[in-house]
Amino acid sequence: MMKICVAGQGAFGQKHLDALKRIAGVEVTSLVGGNQDATAEVAKKYGVPHHTGDLGEGIKRADAVILTTPTKMHFRQGEQVMRAGKHVLVEIPVTDSVEDAENLVKIAKETGVVAMGGHVRRFNPSHQWVHKRIQKGELKIQQMDVQTYFFRRRNINAAGNPRSWTDHLLWHHAAHTIDLFQYQAGETISDCYAVQGPIHPQLNIAMDMGIVAKVPSGAMLTLSLSFNNDGPLGSFFRYICDNGTYKAFYDDLSDGKDNKIDVSKVDVSMDGIELEDREFIAAITEKRAPNASLAEVLPCMKVLGKLEQIIDPQRKAHA
């Protein structure tokens, strides 16, 4: 029985708790959270026997830790977990700086633990279906056209509750697509550019952003992101390939003419978070590097760093 500690009692922590309930041979032994009343409530809901505000206490009770805490805490907590000799899954965004991401990779190498980033798009059945066809040589991407749209004028999470941190279009939402594009293309981005809209006076982040990029073979990425979109929400992926067009929305897939493609047999679940967690657990059990290891997602973090320098001249001047 593998003992797991989940850190973060919010919306995403609960997604992982839901997923872990469906995986055999796993026991959630501790829930670590900030708001202890909320943490106690979530622990009771999921039958977790221990809850605390002290990550160290959770680490003692576990073989591995899933961090779904605010991004600003990821580096310190990730290091704490790995230095304790425990495996770690750090939810996306792994960090909000290239330096912190590089240092986490170094610590993972030093400690020899399994260290994974929560890049769930690699595991969604829709994107897996496309990936398998690319690997077989049946498809080659010409362009990925992606829209990531939310309506967020206040600092709330996916469950509609106040956040203790501020979400970010670049370091969170663009990270999903930048990593997926490089993963599907099998190449690292060689050229990229970004623009952003006005900074929100209260949230202090850009609410709109546009990114274009390409890999050495010439495959392109066009990415539009917004927190101002009052309409269908989420990330919409269009794969324009040499042998067909495919549209993915989370775990659903259709061709360019809206004919639905059955992806129910692609993997053992239709839940990307569950598949991400299964890969983490399998990598620990099999003593191997996981898909989306911290080292594998580092090229994504480096691209985000380049894009930040483009859209933030002050940071670029001091880089």
Q: From the helix content, strand content and strand pairing, which structural class follows?
A: alpha/beta
How many β strands by DSSP?
A: 13
Average predicted confidence as pLDDT: 94
Helix content: 25-40%
Q: What order do the helices and strands follow?
A: EHEHEHEHEHEHEHEEEEEEHHH
Characterize the main sheet. 7 strands, mixed
Walk across the major sheet and give the strand order: 8-9-10-7-11-12-13
How many whole angstroms does the radius of gyration measure?
19 Å
Low-confidence stretches: 315-319
Describe the structure.
Strand 4 (64-67), helix 4 (74-83) and strand 5 (87-91) form a beta-alpha-beta unit. The protein has 319 residues and is an alpha/beta fold. The protein has helices at residues 11-20, 36-46, 55-60, 74-83, 98-111, 125-135, 169-185, 272-286, 294-311, 313-318, and strands at 2-7, 26-32, 51-52, 64-67, 87-91, 115-118, 141-149, 191-196, 208-214, 220-226, 234-241, 244-249, 252-255. The chain has ten helices and 13 strands. It is globular, with a radius of gyration of 19 Å. The strands form two sheets. Strands 8-9-10-7-11-12-13 form a seven-stranded mixed sheet, covered by helices on one side. Strands 3-2-1-4-5-6 form a six-stranded parallel sheet, with helices on both faces. The termini are far apart.
